[in-house]
Amino acid sequence: MPSPYNGYVAEIDYSHAFYPEIAPTSLAFALLLKGVQPPRVSGDFAYCELGCGQGLSSNLLAGMHPRARFWGVDFLPSHIAGARHLAEEAGHVNAVFLDDSFEDFAQRPGPDFDIIALHGVWSWVSAENRAILVDILRRRLKPGGMVYVSYNCLPGWAADMPVRQLLLDQVSASVGPLPERIEEALRFGQRLSRLGGYFDHVAGAGPHLDSLLAKSDSYIAHEYLNRDWAPFYHAEVARDLEAAKLNFAASATLLDHLEDWRLAPDALALLAETSDPTRRETLRDYLTYTRFRRDIFIRGPRRLAPSEREARLRDFRFGLCVPRDEVPESVSTPKGEIALPAALYAPLADALAAGPQGLSALLKLPALAEQGFEAVLTALTALVGLGVAVPVPPEEEGRAEGCARFNHAVLRQNRHAPDLRQLASPVLGTGLQVDLLDRLFLLARQEGREPAAFAWTILSERGKRLRRNGEWLETAEENLAELGRLHDVFTRSRLPLLRAWGIVEG
Ligand SMILES: C[S@@+](CC[C@H](N)C(=O)[O-])C[C@H]1O[C@@H](n2cnc3c(N)ncnc32)[C@H](O)[C@@H]1O
Questions:
Q1: Helix orientation angle between 306-314 and 373-385, rounded to the nearest 10 degrees
Q2: 349 contacts 327 by C-beta, under 8 angstroms
Q3: pLDDT at position 12, please?
Q4: Residues linked to residue 294 through DSSP beta bridges, in sequence order
Q5: Of 16, 145, 332, 358, whose CA is between 20 and 30 Å from 49?
Q6: Which residue CA neighbors atom 8 of ligand 1 most closely?
Q7: Which residue's CA is the closest to the ligand 1 atom numbered 22?
Q8: How far is residue 303's CA from residue 324's CA, in Å, rounded to a whole number?
Q9: Rounded to the nearest 5 degrees, what angle is found at the Cα of 442, between the Cα atoms of 436 and 447?
Q10: CATH class of 20-154+229-298
Q11: CB-CB contact of 289 with 249 (8 Å)
């Protein structure tokens, strides 16, 4: 009997992950930066994630946007069973998970969507499936709706494509459990890479192969080992999506919006010579040697007048998602180290550290008022792109409760499985990664247990021990003492932040 998975790796589940770029508010912010009207992203809207994997993103967003409705679609039943379990534990009534193939889903009657997200899907499915996806987008996206699509792109991948082929060939030629075959293929690749030839000619290929040794089997399987795998030029994706009446509107990678961080003046001048947006993006990928794109397409883009764009952006709120002292003072870019001017970034970071602020309110602060709207907006874009700030959705009734239920469910699952790492912040409106020990300390609080002893029970059940000053701690007493010390550090440094972000109540 033929496999129902069309050559897609079904032997290892995909990892649990939340990608902040696919949050509705982040997508809307990226569109507004380009002066394009976003669809509705607060209150009642409909969001569909095609190829939702373990469904962590859709589940987290369902807690964050209690009046919106979320659909997650993925043909691997193990993914959907896990996603449904989390949704049930979190008590979500606004999230539906279907173990449909894209083909099944295309035939299923259902609602039209304001937002459709495809993260890590487009480059990893067959041409037939991409055609089905275009059909779904054509029929199920509302006019004015947006599509997020990420993909491996050319020319950034061109020189490294043989690395992927080598891995695939090696894994296909061996038998046994997939993790062992992956390990063997990587070791073989390393031997080959020391013998010159291709690996001498393409400087990055050997390091690329070496870097895979540190990646999880799940990542390698889903990124490299599907039968169908193809990087694309942006122009090819834009042409395919035209059939669904979609136009490219913005990059969801916010650092892409800071073009002078990556491109020299003569490169920017060359790009300015073309008025065709598709050609411009494709040429830009040559100049930046981009390997992975996150694009936002719109069905029927409505261009905002500059005054309307500014008014909409002034209404946006932003929050810091790291401690104030982790906001960088400079950033390394392809053009070298760029200092973030303290006169602009310091008052901005100080203000955001006190809690989410609207851009209008920020612009009333004397130190920022003198910088002006565009400068402050650019700095906020940079902070969000660097992962130290987030655009915050408008406040909404039920969010705190939705996030609390999601966080309780995630922490409960951490009792048995350590791979759910993100918790929802109702204050920042996004998911934040929390370290394993901190999650165990939070679970101990939730269950009214003594934190160090509780964490040690779980770690020792999993055969784990701690290290101090590079030395493994052998005995239970040593581990417990270290956990007690780490819990004190957690209580003093991170717990207050988790409280301020609404992840811990009270
Ligand atoms: C690389 S994973 C990305 C998962 C998720 N979007 C994320 O970012 O965590 C791609 C997902 O697409 C699903 N998928 C691939 N082909 C599919 C198809 N034809 N129909 C439905 N789901 C499919 C896979 O099962 C897998 O979970």
A1: 60
A2: yes
A3: 62
A4: 150
A5: 358
A6: 119
A7: 74
A8: 36
A9: 125
A10: alpha beta
A11: no
Q: Which residues are within 8 A (CB) of 46 and not within 5 positions of it... i.e. 6 or more apart?
A: 68, 69, 71, 111, 112, 113, 114, 115
- List the chain residues with pLDDT less than 50: none
- How far CA 220 is from CA of 112, 149, 226, 445, in Å, comes to 34, 20, 10, 36
Pocket lining: 79 vs ligand 1, CB cutoff 6 Å: yes
Question: For position 463, what pLDDT does the model report?
Answer: 87
Q: How far is CA 156 from CA 160, 212, 291, 292, 422, in A?
A: 8, 17, 4, 8, 30
Domain locations in the chain as residue ranges: 20-154+229-298, 158-224, 312-392, 399-500
β 46-50/69-73 pair status: parallel
CA atoms within 13 A on the CB side of 167: 28
Residue from 5, 8, 73, 227 to probe ligand 1 pocket by mutation (most atoms less than 8 Å from CB): 8
Tell me the CA–centroid distance for residue 53 and ligand 1, in Å. Answer: 5
Q: How confident is the model at residue 174, as a pLDDT?
A: 84
In whole angstroms, give the CA distance from residue 256 to residue 286: 14
Alpha-carbon distance 204 to 159, whole Å? 8
Between the CA atoms of 147, 150, 156 and 157, what dihedral angle is there, to the nearest 10 degrees? -130
Tokens of 349: 């970071």
Q: Are 118 and 150 in contact (CB under 8 A)?
A: yes
* Residues 324, 388: Cα–Cα separation, whole Å: 9
Instruction: Give the closest residue (by CA) to ligand 1 atom 16.
Output: 125
Q: Tell me the residue type at 434.
A: V
Task: Decide whether any atom of ligand 1 lies within 6 Å of the 14 Cβ.
Answer: yes
pLDDT at residue 113, as a whole number: 98
Q: From CA 352, how far away is CA 485, in angstroms rounded?
A: 30
Question: Which pairing describes strands 113-118 and 46-50: parallel, antiparallel, or unpaired?
Answer: parallel
What CA–CA distance (Å, rounded) separates 80 from 423?
Answer: 20
Question: At residue 423, what are phi and psi to the nearest 5 degrees?
Answer: -115, 155
* Contact 71 CB / ligand 1 (< 6 Å): no
Q: Is the CB of 76 under 6 A from ligand 1?
A: yes
Token pair belonging to 57: 């993103």
Does ligand 1 have an atom closer than 6 angstroms to the CB of 223? no
Model confidence over 465-497: pLDDT tens digits?
Answer: 888 888 888 898 998 999 999 999 999 999 999
Neighbours of 355 (CB within 10 A): 14
**CA separation, residue 470 to residues 144, 429, 467, 482 (Å):** 55, 37, 6, 13
pLDDT at residue 10, as a whole number? 63
Judge if the beta carbon of residue 72 lies within 6 A of ligand 1. Answer: no
